[in-house]
## 1
Amino acid sequence: MKKSNMKKIVSFAAVVMTAGIFAGCSTAKTQTAGNNQTGNTIKIGVNMELSGAAAGYGNSQKQGIQLAAQEINKDGGINVNGKKKKIKLIIKDNKTSTTTSASVAAQLVNNDKVAAIVGPATTNAGTAEIPNITKAAVPSVSPSATDPNYTKQKNGKVQPYVFRACYQNNFQGGTAAKFMTNTLKAKRVAVFADNSSDYGTGLAKAFKKSFKGTIVDSQSFSEGDKDFNAVLTSFKSKKIDAIYVPGYYTEVGLIIKQARQNGINVPIVGSDGMADPKLAQIAGNKNASKIYYTTPFSDDVAKSNPTAVKFMNAYKAKYHADAPTFSALAYDSVYMIKSAIESEKSADSIKITKGLSKIKNFDGVTGTITINKNHDPEKPIAIEQLTNGKVSNSFNIK
């Protein structure tokens, strides 16, 4: 999941350059041997979007992170070669800003000496921290950075200290296309994608590549847009069977509302950026029916997974709400770091990195996870259906 608060004219190269320059200003000392923690605690940094455009996702992830750390500490901590060490979270707000994310990463690895980082939530903020974590040899696990190139260098090689707990955009887009064809039996589809970032455009590209029917129209919108009536009216005249809308709940909620107000009652299918209760709040419960989105975590599918059931019960007890997707992904991210530490029997950041790269058949809340050679997880995917604003059905996609 990638949410940008910058205009699209800011290129990927510029983002990385900005991060690198900012990093140079903020890192008086460059770590080269990693951070090894020998005390009674293990410091894990959190570089997260707690304010700004992606704050909804970041705060949801923060709750999952805190729940995981609380559980681990209550059980005595992380087992490091026979000795239990408790987690100390160091949480910082990157404000959904690339420059702030770079600064936060520098503080966490050089001043706080963390052994690993969870976050950021978005690809842009995550990309901005890469120069600093690489120099310091400290791994980072993003719960939700989905851009296919996030874990790769420009030369195609893997970013050595970058990992994620979520699948890539091309997997989501392709899954949505197959679902529309095989389950919804849609033959004529319109695409309405968020062009503010590579998240929406990447998903749209993957969907178009995989969809076997006819794409009768393809339009785009931008972050912050409010009025979608003109495009929706044009869709209505083209006898569509469904609409694919890869984007975030802030805009997609309004698109759903305006589509229904325009008499467009066909299924609307989207991506994990819709997996938030605020979607139905914006759209209105009565409008949020025949709504579908790809997600790495579904309450309904998860009921058959004892690890997920335990998480859902613990989350509800702590936060008095149902566990959202992004909390589940962040929760898994913390436990992935714990698994890496225990498998390597070390709280040294370089060894933790090796442990993360070796994860196989990890029993996660979001499914069984194996980290592949590109530091991406191989894991299951689901699609949730909303009816009157509530999840009414789930599809486990093989």
## 2
Amino acid sequence: MTPYSLLPLLFCLLMTQAWSAPMATRQTVLVESQRSARDASHDFYVDLLQLVLNNSREQWGEAKVEEVNGDFSQSRAFAALNSGQLHVFWAGTSKQRQQRFRAIEVPLFAGLLGVRVPVIRRDRLAEFRGYQTLVDWQGLLACQGSQWPDSDILEANGFRVTRIAKFDLMYSMLKQGRCDYFPRGLNEVGAELAAVGQQDLMAYEDVLITYPFPMYFFVAKDNEALYQRLSITLEAMAASGELRHFLFSHPTTAGLFPLARFDDSLRFRLTNALLPESTPLQRPELWLPLARP
């Protein structure tokens, strides 16, 4: 092995160790960049993470979020945590993910990721109004991420799913009629449909597909310093109400509230066998009533 071939390895090692050392100087927290203009909820995570870092700077020092360009699938993004290419990744949780990585077990959206509203083509609205039973919806074809736990959850509950690798392709395939609907978390759907080129799609709010499924910040298994910083600070923000206020007021999610418009929506409650035993289901302060297990 030549000295030059060792450079990438040394870089990754240094980036990983940076968050294991005392934070006496300004730190950089690496996250993935926005996947596309349709990935409109990306700003929520970046802004929240920066707020957590700001709130904890007195104890841990200054830190700034920096975005890393790269076409990260979920599996690549998780692998990038271990290599040091990324320091934080946000995703829905599963037993397997929490065995391999450290999850900060504070649901970032108070459980709304697991409250799914179907996105459909506007020209099929009358047709969808006729789908009133669980069997009806199990017969339709959902677009979903190939590596998302949602796909496993839906299939385990008898739903038909076509698994798609790239986020943008899911909306494209929906428009082309290659799937019937695209279930999106309530925290995601408004900002995504406000993006350019989505006028022929709509959120079908008459139906909600729900399952307990928290969205967490994840860090590498051995990144104890960053884990402690994020965990302690997010717990404090949840206890004080600051996290809930951020959810209610952030531009990408503020339009969701109040949630009373969903009071009469038909709800299909699914089970989620992928949840780790440590999931804080018995802490009502972490979940909005609509998403409460």
